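Key idea: predict the complex, not the pieces.
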Amino acid sequence: MKIVIDGMGGDNAPDAIVEGVVQAVQELGQENQIILVGQEQLLTDALRKTRYNGNRIQIVNADSVISNDDAPVRAVRKMKDSSVVVGMNMVKNGEGDVFISAGSTGAILAGGLLILGRVKGIDRPTLATVYPVIGGKPSLLVDAGANAECKPRNLLEFAVMGSIYMEKVLGRENPTVGLVNNGTEEEKGTALTRAANKLLKESSVNFVGNIEARELQNSACDVIVTDGFTGNALIKLTEGLGLMVLRELKSIFLTSPMTKISAILMKEQLKKLKTEFDYKEYGGAPILGVKGALLKMHGSSDAKAVRQTILKAVLYVEENVVGIISDAVNPRSKRSSDTDDQEK
Amino acid sequence: MKIVIDGMGGDNAPDAIVEGVVQAVQELGQENQIILVGQEQLLTDALRKTRYNGNRIQIVNADSVISNDDAPVRAVRKMKDSSVVVGMNMVKNGEGDVFISAGSTGAILAGGLLILGRVKGIDRPTLATVYPVIGGKPSLLVDAGANAECKPRNLLEFAVMGSIYMEKVLGRENPTVGLVNNGTEEEKGTALTRAANKLLKESSVNFVGNIEARELQNSACDVIVTDGFTGNALIKLTEGLGLMVLRELKSIFLTSPMTKISAILMKEQLKKLKTEFDYKEYGGAPILGVKGALLKMHGSSDAKAVRQTILKAVLYVEENVVGIISDAVNPRSKRSSDTDDQEK
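Result:
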């Protein structure tokens, strides 16, 4: 397998990316290679610092980097020599099996649409994020922000694609699907959620009905379906609240010598709580519904997050998530004709 | 002032309501009376248990109770003898200055619209909730769930009404207003948020621009403006996450005798954290934009929450929030003609 990764994306590039790549390659079987895309000299220097001396990491040059300030669609169209465009084209042309980037979410989404293209039958690809559940198993949130405005059929597609990813990559058998709503009753909500509830009930996903945001932390469902505006708000609020609680706890523990000792006594448990809030741990966010395996990492990803994401990416490809999504939405078509762009 | 309160609403009625009323009346000046509305015998018994022996608490009989299972609009129309309808009619007829209930949110909103009526110039009244900020000053969230689907002008109205309540009742001078969005840039978001951003910029509120949900815990603004679907999700997620963190902390503190001692050492600080998450503390959620002062309490309100809400209700009336809202949306009209329903 050839894993293509953007060496230039995110706050800690290229060093954290390269370090994570080196960590991952040592855990992967000999048949796997990692291709770092970006400014060759920078990446070569970063790789040298790690003292990696194997032959399973390649560097492919890309002169420019799309930043968060660049307008995504325009940048993908114009900046042909950017790490995102070069890397994604490698997947499109069969020179890579998956593309990973911690760069601009907008550019990765735009690249997915413009370079890889949508799976036939999918109206809107989606960004799926692992949603942290304190003291419990994480859920998968679709859509996490790719589509601020949605039609009912989009929410159904998110549910189908999210269920496949949850089962194949995150290992949750027959995952339950809940629809975020302002009440559990079917007749509650907006025109969008009422229509989506109906579609989901009639669909093949394991739909457990509407769920209120209050229940997300009770592992109310494995796949949380919502529009990208609400999904973005939910994941960002959880992130902000988690950081704030941890900061507050820290200040509580610093109030006296005795409380400082207490913190030391509970170090392991507190570390676990911190980890649970930290969705960088969970291995990147897939963009589902495009003709190729595509993963977005958090912009602040460190080497550990990079390693985790690469390990998940292997499953994403091995389990043929892209092909299964295509089959699910085109039950009678030949899959190969839909997805041959990224398969060789 | 005459404060009318639903003695039958909420999980802990009538005892917690009556107990809260007794606590509050002792803190209020002699000129204030509280009128408990509900099943006379039940309320008389509950009041007797408190051993209250003053003459500033009256009981007004209402035979029925609207439950959360009753369809709100239908219930308000048909159940004329319910505590919500009887109590709200007292405010409408000038026999009371404010109505408070921990009962069905739907019924209270429907009653506000059907019995009190909208302030002239307001398209959609709103439910405003105090939004807890850990380690900081709370914000006010409008709309917290009254209007799942909104037009841009509704969001502007929420901002205007929320700013007035924040200043007059919660004492925050010249409150800042932020619009919840999936990015801070003006061009980001949905058709709704883009249009609302424009209206807010041109308005007289102290608009600080779009805010992401991640920033809510950083006291990014005093008044958080959003549609009722998103607002409902934000407040419920915060509530659910808060409960879960506290539960997790409790289990961390119970892992060993040493950690149990630590918990005792940090008791005061942990209690403060719990209080910050507990928005029952903050004195009820006003329904703004109706012709009368109206407050919804959390269904699980205890006596302390009831007392807090009654104390806030006094400010709500004394500061003439309803009149000021009317003036703000009808700058050239005579306020008395818009709001004389609830004024005597």
